[in-house]
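Late entry, evening session. Most of the bench is empty. Finally got around to the prediction I had been postponing all week. Sequence below, unchanged from the version circulated by S.P.
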Amino acid sequence: MSSPATGGMAIGGAGYAYNPDNQAMNRETMTSDQAENARQKSAAVMEALRSGESGAADKAMGQSAGTGGASLGTWARLKNKLGKREPTMAADGRGLDDDDSVLFDHQPATHRTMFQFRIPSLPTWHALGGGGIRVPKPEVHDVEERPEKRARTLKHLLKANHINHSIIYNDLRFHNHTPHILGSAYIFGAQSEQLTEVYEAEGKHLEPWKDSPGEISKHDWRDFLGKRQYQRAYLDFFEDQLVSHGYDWQALLREFLLEGKEPLINNLIAGLGHPLIHLGYAQELSSRTVAIESLVLATCFYNDWHVFLDDPKYTKPSASPSDSLFTIVERIRHDKVFDGLFDRQGSDNIDTLLSNEEAAAKALEYWNQWDLKKPSEQFAESQKVAVALVVAAQGTDHAERSNKYDFFAVHLLTTSHAVRILLSWLPSKYHIPLVRQWWLFVVLVYIAQMRPTVNIDRIKLVELEGRDWKFVIDRALKGRYRTDAHYVKALRCMHEASKTWGDANQYYLKAAVKMAEEFDGWGGFGPREVPEEVHHGDGRLARRYSGQGGALGE
């Protein structure tokens, strides 16, 4: 979740900044002079982006942040770890590119190419295994390499967010969605000025980094799983590990996501699925910056749900299997075991559900009912289910929120899209477990949100009246909710699904047009969340979770 919280947006806010005139990178709070220096240099980046001077933005970003793979606060430790040696040269004289250069970022740009590592080209994760769920390979938007202004702007903004804003904020409860909305807007075709506007709107509610209680090392990194107060320490740890992997961020992900007795890959739905969503954007944008953040989210939100995948005793043959998720959702809706568990919707209901022995057992029974006989076809259907749970279930049981969409249900759609992206990279043996992990998330959230009726006619009967994807994209980039991260992400997920599977019956288009046109904020919150929104926001429930602004020209 995202939320307006204390602390400021700051591409130039006081935080962690690299001073090119001093080879020390301090983890400690900067002095007022250093903070002012950082603000001035970072402001130069924004000014360059607004003016369209991409080269100037490159130079300013290099001076302001460095942004390399190594931790922004670990210069001294990095030198010791590398034995104060010079980086190894590649055979062709290349090595670190401008953005990778940490050890030599103080050098003039004209000399940086001398001190660079070459990042090896490795096969995709999918190539490491065979079979699994077959999906069309998604388009990768390599923003690190593309020279056009839009891509360079996105690269700078992702790194600015990485440097200046913590990944978890508001009492360590909410998630930084900046990469999600920036990536979605970029893929939708947003120009540099629109990306900058989105960044500034989202950043108003974020917070600067805070020091963790201690550091994390290779020998004890699992000891701090689930401890969100260690988010900065995990960031430093993974950035240091990136150096030891030769800046090969895919190798870094393989080690920390896939290896070990209880790999992190089996707990990506924790934290309302944000580790999974973040990882999807890392692959889709080919961004090591976002990849490292996804590891931080996966470690900090790690919880007991991993046992459902790690312990085989929870996976049992069902007495009533079905190959259709629509069928199982309908069964859950009518099951009286869940009646009276909650008095209203909200994410806290998941804990209540899992603490009730009978209800938890029943939920797991439904989880096991999905019989994946034809996994590729059934995954395709699962994406239709994800859309239906957002659009076709909207407003059916709560007339007072007829134009409010369920905030927690939308995460079922955005995580589904992330799964679709990751299936093209992961070794095949992880495909079915990942899809089943997503289905477990659906079961938990659907029950927690009090099992709304799913009326598919709410999508099928939409009259397009000439409206097409151009209409949807225009609403996403120029409409009133253009800076609402979840709104923009949801529309793009539907667009991507239509491209993946085809849309002969215009199912995805109708759903997207419906949401684009009638959306008026988010609902589905629990009693503890609503008062906070009224107190912190402008009286609108959605304001707390992401920025929103007036339509262009208003």
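Two things to note before I forget:
The beta strands are 168-169, 174-175, 405-406, 522-523.
The first strand starts at residue 168 and ends at 169.
Will write this up properly tomorrow.
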